[in-house]
Amino acid sequence: MKLLVCGGAGFMGSHFIKYILATYPDYEVVNFDKLTYAGNLENLREVENNPRYTFVRGDICDKAAVEDVIRENNIEAIVNYAAETHVDRSIMDPDAFLRTDILGTFNLLEATKNFNLTKMVQISTDEVYGSIEAGSFTEESPFSPNSPYSAAKAGGDHLCRAYFVTYKTPVVVTHSCNFYGTNQYPEKLIPFFITNLIEGKKVPLYGDGKNVREWIHTSDHCKAVDVLLHKAAPGEVYNIGSGQELENIELTNMILSEMGFGGDMIEPVRDRPGHDRRYSIDWSKLKKDFGWHPEKDFKAGLRETIKWYKNNPNWWQPLKSGEHREYFKKQYTEKA
Ligand code: NAD
Ligand code: DAU
Known about the structure:
The protein is α/β, with parallel strands linked by helices. The chain has helices spanning 11-23, 63-72, 87-92, 95-114, 148-167, 189-198, 218-231, 248-258, 284-290, 298-311, 313-316, 325-335, and strands spanning 2-6, 28-33, 53-57, 77-80, 119-125, 171-176, 178-180, 203-206, 212-217, 237-240, 245-247, 266-269. The chain is 42% helix and 17% strand. The model has no long low-confidence stretch (mean pLDDT 97).
């Protein structure tokens, strides 16, 4: 198969490209990525000389560039990871979110339709469902997004549904819980807190720290997307979850204790505006239809992730310094 992975230089997209090249010896992958602040070709060093891997710098909002990459590489299917992804940035500056997460998705749907591709997998988020106090969201739950990020993702997902209903475009949408693992940009909770602690800095915990998130390891997510790319019927929607729910304070304490620190390293700060209290998704459909289930033990995965950040300061230090330092200063002080 000739696969186009959009956003493949980011956190999960790069894991997926490495997974596909290792799992399918006859597949070819084209990575189409704009290289925003979150795109990092260091994530793909180990495959950059693989003859079955090609990188093309481009923007999914640029319709002609999308068409060119598909035509020139005889692409058969798309997996779309390209998005603006950080909720805090969407609160400070939503513009790029609306463009990439809605208009970019629209361009990929148009291309899937017009080039008669076999499948487009749209990687989306549990955040489109909003916040839930008890129980879990199913694929039938209504959308109720609460941040510019989740509203933009929901816009893209609605277009996917409309393209299937109207044109029978073979698109499959995922709603995933929070990813964790190596190579995650250090603005998100887990890598931000780990790298702060390595630097001897405190960790800023928003509000009362009792917001709940559900966590899935990169390896389990790659396997789920593999199954959906190959087996899911066009027009279907699947939740991808783990059942590993934690209050932020519980997760923070796990990181602190694993790294040999105490609660004095927590800095309680002002809450995120519109902060969703709890995400929880029911992924029984994915299990029932394909037998997929998460395998990674959370404590083991977290320990490996901490070890990776400790061993790879050359990867993350440049991302928290230089031109990027201003963002981290703002993220911290705005909340303080
Ligand atoms: P990321 O922020 O690490 O990487 C995003 C990538 O997309 C970057 O390489 C960036 O350069 C690229 N990109 C951004 N705008 C682009 C554009 N206009 N054209 C081409 N490339 C562009 O992302 P991530 O955290 O790995 O998330 C990947 C996908 O999974 C996103 O769609 C996100 O909404 C979804 N998701 C993420 C999580 C999570 O916990 N991180 C959970 C559920 C769903
Ligand atoms: O649920 C899936 C979503 O998970 C994805 O769609 C998003 O792309 C991804 O960024 C993530 O969103 P969250 O807002 O849940 O992730 P983040 O790591 O930003 O925050 C996790 C929780 O930790 C959240 O409740 C806010 C809190 N937090 C975050 C940061 C960065 C803090 O308390 N302090 C912080 O400094």
